[in-house]
Recover the amino acids of this structure.
């Protein structure tokens, strides 16, 4: 019996990231209450964790293990359901910080 394919799992990670970004946008627009947004984020995080566990059954188990640890850390420390969605949402903040750091006094 064959295990899961990493390419398919990566597609699931991308799908979860898109769903997370959509949920974040709907929350910002006021279409999700905070409790619903939290429930959606937890559900997406559990889906992301399931994908990472599935990745442990592939040949790239070390990379998927690192991804799982990173996913747990990002969720606990920053509240994002997926490291990819965290990078996408935090990228503008990081760019602004870098721009301000390089601005002369």
């Amino acid at each position: 019996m064959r295990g899961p394919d990493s390419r398919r799992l990566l597609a699931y990670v991308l799908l979860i990231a898109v769903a997370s970004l959509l949920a974040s946008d709907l929350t910002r627009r006021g279409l999700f209450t905070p409790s619903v947004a939290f429930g959606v984020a937890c559900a997406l995080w559990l889906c992301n964790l399931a994908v990472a566990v599935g990745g442990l059954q592939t040949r790239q188990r070390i990379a998927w293990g690192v991804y799982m640890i990173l996913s747990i850390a990002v969720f606990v420390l920053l509240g994002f359901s997926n490291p990819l969605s965290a990078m996408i949402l935090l990228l503008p903040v990081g760019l602004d910080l870098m721009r301000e750091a390089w601005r002369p006094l």
Notes: The mean pLDDT is 89. The CA atoms of residues 53 and 68 lie 7 Å apart.
